[in-house]
Amino acid sequence: GAKQPERAKEYGRTCRMIGGVISVILAVTYFLGAGALMRLFFVEEEIVAIGVSIMRVIIFVVILQIAQVIYMGCLRGAGDTLYTAIASTVSVTIVRTLGSYLFGYALGLGITGIWMGVIADQLSRFIFANVRFRQGKWTEIKI
User: Fold this and answer.
1) Which residues lie closer than 8 Å to 74 by C-beta, 6 or more apart?
2) Helix locations, the chain, DSSP H
3) How far is residue 135's CA from residue 107's CA, in Å, rounded to a whole number?
4) CB-side exposure of 38: number of CA atoms within 13 Å?
5) What is the DSSP secondary structure assignment for residue 78, as one 8-state letter?
6) Up-side HSE of residue 24: CA atoms within 13 Å toward CB?
7) Residue 34 class from Cβ within 10 Å (0-12 exposed, 13-18 middle, 19+ buried)?
8) Do 16 and 67 contact (CB within 8 A), yes or no?
């Protein structure tokens, strides 16, 4: 940033675009190669099938996680550490826990449902970070 808020925002957006490309590459790899990747570690088809269903969920985790990590990093780097700590704590302890319980147990989706709770966590962190980044208040923090 170097006291240049617009430049800091542009760098953040550029990093987000680079991260977006990386997340798409990983998502395609996970989607097309899920079975082959699982068979590197397991021979039992039932286990492979469970692993493939989890990897299909992880595709969404990866896309959201890369974006939120970049935005949260921009915010932390600018000194907006209290906001990022609160957002992460709420996401991990409340959203992930409730989401995992809801999808995994209440809706009966098992291990795949538990991973859907992780998606809920990553989605909430992405929303928290994206909203805060777009507001631009983080560029006004004095370190």
Assistant:
1) 8, 11, 12, 15, 133, 138
2) 5-39, 45-77, 81-90, 97-101, 110-135
3) 36
4) 20
5) T
6) 6
7) buried
8) yes
What type of residue sits at position 116? M
> What length does the chain have?
143
CB-side neighbour CA atoms (13 Å) of 87: 24
Distance of CA 53 to the CA centre of its chain: 18
Tell me which residue of 119, 128, 124 sits closest to 76, measured CA to CA: 128
* Torsion sign, CA atoms 53, 58, 64, 67: negative
Which of 67, 127, 121 has the alpha carbon at shortest distance from 89? 121
Q: Which two tokens stand for residue 29?
A: 């790899």
Cα 88 to Cα 134: distance, rounded to the nearest angstrom: 18
pLDDT single digits (tens) 33-47: 999 999 999 999 999
Residue 143 — very low, low, confident or very high, per pLDDT cuts 50/70/90?
A: confident
